[in-house]
């Protein structure tokens, strides 16, 4: 989400993956220079593809040339991510492998702030092209997104606070987790206040997190209360 | 939905279709002999496929042999629907047409009651095989189902009343309609009370339906009220 108040990134951690790397928060990866830039990348889709893209992006930060730690804008960061994605897919998805019916595709969300710019947020498609969040469309979802979309559509506006955004995001994940086994706790969250350039402090919400449990219970009870109070119609004409 | 109290069928009517036939309620088709059997078929997917399947099923009711108006059980009705679906797909989806990347698939829900049996409900897959609803899984969805699933999962149980089921179904459609343009009003609904064998009386819920408007507004306001009352967490440590 890209709100007036800042950015909120969140990802679940249900995956068939094996290896996690240091400073890799499962489906959330942070590239930062505190005081100067923070870039957060979320991924969904083919794990081999997403891991390769992240590995290449990170590896290249140590070398010459353009990389996520020296590009001048978030737009360039999204373009670099898209190009790296195309590079990996072109390498892995040749005629021989495509015949096996494997989907090499992956979606990414990349956002953050680079000094000199306002916070920005992009959705990079499997084809490597990308769109940017606006005030009218302040959020993107990738992966198993549909179950949790209605609540976001109802409550999140560009002017929502970061606390509201966090609450809504956790409720949205809770709805998805209840209806679909492919999404699961813990949830990794990164909250970034506009123009703070503070070091990233990701927060991991485990199944036992008291706030998450409170929200989950309160939301479920609240929904059932609202539902029960809504009028019945007599469909059998008395 | 197959509940203790009876069956509830509902379908939206957003489609690229052209032609509607008499006694065809858009994506809802009823086969009945009041006093003896009621069978309701809902469809989603390729329109050419679903129309052909329904046309063949209906046409064959006027002829000799097994058809929906003389099969002895709902299980046989589901099997017949699955076989007709396979027949249509085998006819239309040959090597030449498959190469065009068209998806000929369709999903069906078929349910009802035939005298001598309890009400039953089946989901027929694009492959023609099918599963039956149970007390643990009292409902099926086909088509654009994910947005509206969480509310059903939260409130519908085998013991829910038909009025509750109707209320929940309309709220579920409202959530989907708000988040996805491919689903739209009006909604066709058919409510069947167990063992009534009453003539089908489908109800069409239009955009101006006062009950639907009351539910839609009340649910939206209720959700926002519940959301606002849930506690905020201070993510920045004071």
UniProtKB/TrEMBL annotation, chains A, B:
Superkingdom, taxonomy of origin: Bacteria
UniProt keyword list: Hydrolase, Protease, Proteasome
A GO MF label: peptidase activity
GO terms, biological process: proteolysis involved in protein catabolic process
Keyword Transmembrane (UniProt): no
Keyword Hydrolase applies: yes
InterPro entries for the chain: Ntn_hydrolases_N (IPR029055), Proteasome_sua/b (IPR001353), UCP009120_prtse (IPR016545)
Pfam families: Proteasome
GO CC aspect terms: proteasome core complex
Name of the protein in its database record: Putative proteasome-type protease
């Amino acid at each position: 989400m890209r709100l007036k108040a800042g950015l909120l990134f969140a990802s679940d951690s249900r995956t068939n993956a094996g290896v996690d790397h240091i400073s890799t928060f499962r489906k959330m990866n942070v590239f930062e220079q505190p005081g100067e830039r923070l870039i957060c990348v979320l991924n969904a889709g083919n794990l081999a593809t997403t891991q390769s893209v992240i590995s290449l992006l990170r590896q290249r930060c140590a070398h010459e040339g353009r990389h996520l730690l020296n590009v001048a804008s978030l737009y360039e960061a999204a373009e670099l991510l898209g190009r790296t994605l195309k590079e990996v897919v072109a390498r892995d998805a040749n005629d021989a492998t495509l015949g096996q019916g494997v989907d090499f595709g992956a979606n990414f969300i990349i956002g953050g702030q680079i000094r000199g710019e306002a916070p920005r947020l992009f959705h990079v498609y499997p084809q490597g092209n990308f769109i940017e969040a606006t005030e009218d469309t302040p959020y993107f979802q990738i992966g198993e997104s549909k179950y949790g979309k209605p609540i976001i559509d109802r409550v999140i506006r560009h002017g929502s606070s970061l606390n509201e955004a966090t609450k809504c995001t956790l409720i949205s994940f809770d709805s998805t987790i209840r209806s679909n086994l492919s999404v699961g706790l813990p949830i990794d969250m990164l909250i970034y206040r506009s123009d703070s350039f503070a070091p990233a402090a990701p927060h991991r919400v485990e199944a036992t997190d008291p706030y998450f449990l409170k929200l989950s219970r309160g939301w479920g009870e609240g929904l059932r209360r609202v539902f029960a109070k809504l009028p019945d119609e007599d469909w059998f004409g008395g």
